[in-house]
Amino acid sequence: MFSARIAALVLCLTIFYSAQRPEATGTVTGHVLCADTNLPARNAHVLLQAVVDKSQTTKAPKGEQPTQAISVFSATLLDGSFTIPNVAPGDYYIFVEKPGYLSPFASISREDLDHPKPETADLISKLLTPVTVVANRTSNAEVRILKGAAISGTIRFDDGIPDANAPIHLLNKDKTGKWVSFRTKLIAGPFEGTPTDDQGHYRISGLPAGEYLVQTSLALINIVTSEVYAENGGIANETKYSLDLYSGDSFRRRDATSIKLSEGEESTSADITIPLSKLHSVSGSLLAARTGHTVNAGNVAIVYPDDDTQLVSTKISEDDGSFRFFYVPEGQYTLKITDARDVSREEVPYPPGSFPPFHIVEKKIREYDPQQQPIIINADLSGVTAQVQPKPSAGPSPKSN
Questions:
Q1: What does the pLDDT average to over 182-198?
Q2: Which domain, by its residues, includes 77?
Q3: 163 and 268 housed in the same domain
Q4: pLDDT value, residue 11
Q5: What is the per-residue pLDDT across 57-106, written as a single tens digit (0 to 9) for each?
Q6: Burial of 18 by CB count in 10 Å (0-12 exposed, 13-18 middle, 19+ buried)?
Q7: Which of 257, 274, 291 marks a domain boundary?
Q8: How far from each other are the two terminal CA atoms of the chain, in whole angstroms?
Q9: Is the pLDDT of residue 6 over 60?
Q10: Looking at residue 241, what is its pLDDT?
Q11: Which of 208-212, 268-272, 349-353, 393-397 has the lowest mean pLDDT?
Q12: pLDDT for position 275
């Protein structure tokens, strides 16, 4: 009896300590080389991504979060070497990102890895290096990264002044032929997009072969900060107005000039000139058709009349109940009003120490039907008015002053 109890205790302790002992792991080491120079890829970021996404193949118990496929980062040394310890056993792809070189994340999605098609299978073998991790062993791999294409140019106004710190974004065509944003941000990068320098110059590198549009914006951004000189001061920003402009000096995406790049090619003249002399301001207000009072909330857009695509939009100002388009290119358009409404507003404070210190709570009084009317812009326009009809189901209108 005593021996049986001892055996049972030993068995329990064995099970307990086995459960507490961490899973045995392996190590991945290797070198990253630049394929165009055969030299080490210094300060590149290396990432291990599980071949099988466990969150898709393992059903989590009820009430628990699904297991996530873990990605492990490392950085290469000056000789291009890297070491990633404590990796769970399994099959992985090695992703490498370095400015100027093709990023697998820009071309290969998780869906592509899970369900590779013939065209994506070729791309995976071109951009990714597989590695198998075995417990208590070191797996070694050599990775070669491919130089990408690049687009560079200058953004300036038609009076010759450069547009410094202008946002630059790339678009390319998806599988359906639709223009969509192209990812230029690296996993370890600080931000999406590449702003122009003080001379209006920009350069975007590491691009796969393909067809692209360059997009910039004339944007007004409201910035509020709690402390200018404090390093940990709170900051909040809101885009007040934004007008897009594309390669080929077009404000309309369908009329933009695309840039076609072959592998490793550099396009150096993707310049955009902003026609300052042909941009005008448009301002006005919305009036209730029955009472003539100014409607103090709503969205106003300027759209192209032939296909109803939007050029630019703005909101009714909370300050004075007017709308204003700061920059609009000359042309014939449609002024389109949506979500027009009468509202009351109240400032509600956040808890002490919050930033911003308060927020606006809006109470809807009356709603109006959508409205649109033609507008021709060939000079600055002020005092533009548009009448809106109340929705039948709404209550009584506020009295006009």
A1: 77
A2: 23-145
A3: yes
A4: 39
A5: 445 455 554 444 445 678 899 999 999 999 999 999 999 999 999 999 88
A6: exposed
A7: 274
A8: 99
A9: no
A10: 92
A11: 393-397
A12: 96
Tokens of 358: 């308060």
52: amino acid identity, one letter: V
- 3-state SS, the chain, equals CHHHHHHHHHHHHHHHHHHHCCCCCEEEEEEEEECCCCCECCCCEEEEEECCCHHHHCCCCCCCCCCCCCEEEEECCCCCEEEEEEECCEEEEEEEECCCECCHHHHCCHHHHHCCCHHHHHHHHHHCEEEEECCCCEEEEEEEECECEEEEEEEEECCCCECCCCCEEEEEECCCCCEEECCCCCCCCCCCCCCCCCCCEEEEEEECCEEEEEEEEEEEEEEEECCCCCCCCCEEEEEEEEEEEECCCECCHHHCCCEEECCCCEECCCCEEECHHHEEEEEEEEEECCCCCEECEEEEEEECCCCCCEEEEEECCCCCCEEEEEEEECEEEEEEEEEEEEEEEEEEECCCCCCCCEEEEEEEEEEECCEEEEEEECCCEEEEEEEECECCCCCCCCCCC
Write down the mean pLDDT value for the chain: 85
Q: Same structural domain for residues 198 and 298?
A: no
